[in-house]
Amino acid sequence: MRTYSGHSSAVASNELYRSNLAKGQTGLSIAFDLPTQTGLTRTTRPPPERSQGRRADRAPRSHAPTLEGLPLDEMNTSMTINATAAWLWGLYLALAQEEGVDLNQLQGTTQNDIVKEYLSRGT
Q: Other C-beta atoms within 10 Å of 21: how many?
């Protein structure tokens, strides 16, 4: 079982994920902010007053603290990220390797539905 969640910062998200896993949740469904989903980074995003993801405004490379200390090889991870799915999945794999996780033990899914993003968000 996993719940779709994310918070205003990587640290807050990590705290929520740890709490949920401690209560018996078996996986994570990670919510990414809209700029990350559309491939924007801190250097390519519009100024904060125009950024739709201001509350969750963090560059993709700073998502590592979101997963820090979590048992990646013992849980199921879903990433709802669409157009940047392959790129963020690659970062997830790199993080797992850095932590010494056997990549064959990873479980989860990515969503890569760019048509949905275009039709529902116009992005």
A: 17
